[in-house]
Amino acid sequence: MSKLRLAANLSMLFTDLPNLSDRFLAAKEAGFRYTECAFPYSEDISVLKAAKEKSGVEHVLINSWPGDLASGQLGIAALTNERKTFRDKLELTIEYAKALDCKRVHIMAAKLPKYSDSAVEETFTDNLQYAADRLMKENIMGLIEPINSRLSVPKYFLDNLHKALKYVQELNHPNLKLQFDFFHVQIMDGNLTANFKDFLPYIGHIQISQVPNRGEPNTDGEINYNYIFKMLQSSNYDGYIGLEYNPVGNTRDGLSWIQQMGLQL
Q1: Percent helix, strand and coil across the chain, each rounded to 5?
Q2: How many CA atoms lie within 13 A of 156 on its CB side?
Q3: What is the pLDDT of residues 23-74, one digit of tens each?
Q4: Which of 94, 142, 143, 214 could form a disulfide with 209 if both were Cys (CB 3.0 to 4.6 A apart)?
Q5: Residue 115 has pLDDT above 70, yes or no
């Protein structure tokens, strides 16, 4: 049985501390060896780098530049009028990833109307090809994540698990894999056991939280995480598992679920 490598999501955990840079040490003090985050771009890169290095944790994932979050954007890779911006901002993502010695980048698609046309499909696939090539030169893995549009992100372009797999299979790029979030997969498709086993060869990162309220894995909800963790331990998955949940109360108190479920940091 393999030991699971749990990564604290610093965008959602330890939020009593205002800055990501402060949360690296908090994660370390809580026992974490691995961290991830969504968007580090609002904080000074040198400050983040120093804080990460001081904490001694391994930072395993960041998201690509999301666009204008205030106006509702969440990724630009599928936007036909943002091709140049996508490529320019990918360089900023790479700069942050290298400063944090981070080897995985989630390439965010975009929020769009529910229909799509050939221009959107072409833009997204071209940008994925470009990003996978560019990131490979920096020894950084590119990931795409299907995100549910039913509950979490209405109008998100990549909201189908099987469509996401199709992109990965058709591009067939050695540096492009899936980010498999059990929360989103349950809402989009269910069938967690079969989907995980079928998708395992294509998975480059995993995230977890309870459904539907996105709390700790031991809170009431639809997913039996005791079963999920046993399945993960018996699989050949050797990557990281991001704890991308909203703590019901204090982050530190809520971490008791790890020991309760027979896991360790």
Answers
A1: 40, 15, 45
A2: 24
A3: 999 999 999 999 999 999 999 999 999 999 999 999 999 999 999 999 999 9
A4: 214
A5: no
CATH number given to 60-246:
3.20.20.150
Q: Which of 81, 171, 92, 96 is nearest to 126 (CA)?
A: 171
Q: Model confidence at 114, in pLDDT bands (50, 70, 90)?
A: low
Structure tokens at 227: 């079963």
Contact status, residue 17 vs residue 254, Cβ threshold 8 Å: no
Active site positions, annotated: 145, 244
Report residue 111: phi and psi, to 5°.
-95, 130
Contact 92, 130 (CB under 8 A): no
Q: Would you say the pTM of this structure is higher than 0.85? A: yes
Nearest to 194 by CA among 156, 239, 152, 161: 161
The answer to whether the bond into 212 is cis (omega within 30° of 0) is yes
| Distances 66 to 8, 29, 249 between C-alpha atoms, Å | 21, 30, 28
